[in-house]
Amino acid sequence: MAGDRRIQYTKMVLRESLIELLREKPIARLTVTELCKKADINRATFYSHYRDQFDLLAQIESAVIADINSYLDHFIHETSEANMVQILTKIFEYIQQNSKLCQVLLGNNGNIDFQTNIMKIVSQRVVFEWQKKQKVDETTAEYIYTYVATGSIGIIRKWLGDDKGKPPQQMAEFVSHLVYKGIEALIE
Q1: Do the domains spanning 2-50 and 59-187 agree at the CATH topology level?
Q2: Which fold has domain 2-50?
Q3: In terms of CATH architecture, what is 59-187?
Q4: Per-residue pLDDT tens digits of the chain, which is 188 residues long
Q5: How many of the other CB atoms lie within 10 Å of CB of 3?
Q6: Which of 73, 100, 104, 109 is buried most deeply by CB count within 10 Å?
C-alpha cells in the first residue's frame, strides 16, 4: 500500500514538474535530466515509469482525453442546448480545476496533436448527431464542427488567459449560445 502512494506521489511530482517546464519551453526542448532535477527524483525512477518526456506527456494527454470522453458520454443522442450547457459546464469546471495543465496543453508550448485529437474525438461523437438533427450532409456538418471546435478552443484559451474571469456556467451558456445560433445561421 505504501508503495502505491510513493508511485502516485512520484507520478504527481513528475506531472507537475513537466507542466511547469512546459510553461517555459516546448516538450522537444526539454530533457529527462531537466525534468528529474525539477521533480527532485533520479532518472532511474523516471525510467521505471516512462520511456521519455514524450511518453509522460502522452499519458497526461490520454488522461485528459479520457476525462473529456466521460463528460461527452452524456451528450450522445441528446443534442439540446440545455444538455449542451450541462456538459459544457462540467467541461469548464474540469478546465478550471486543471487550469495550469489546460493552459499548457492548449498553449504555445503544448502539443498541437493533443488539440487535434480532442477535436477528432468530439467530432466523432457529435457530427453524426448534428447531421441527423440538422439534416445537413456530412461535409457541411464537418465544416460546421471544425468552425465550432476551433472557436471553442479559442474561447477556452482566452478564458484561461483572463484567469477564468467568468464562472464555468456562464462560459458554458456563452459557448452553447454561440454554437446553436451559429449553426442556425449557417443552415438557414
Answers
A1: no
A2: Arc Repressor Mutant, subunit A (1.10.10)
A3: Orthogonal Bundle (1.10)
A4: 556 899 999 999 999 999 999 999 999 999 999 999 999 999 999 999 999 999 999 999 999 999 988 877 766 656 666 777 888 888 899 999 999 999 999 988 888 888 888 877 777 766 666 667 767 787 887 787 788 888 888 899 999 988 767 899 999 999 888 877 766 666 66
A5: 7
A6: 104
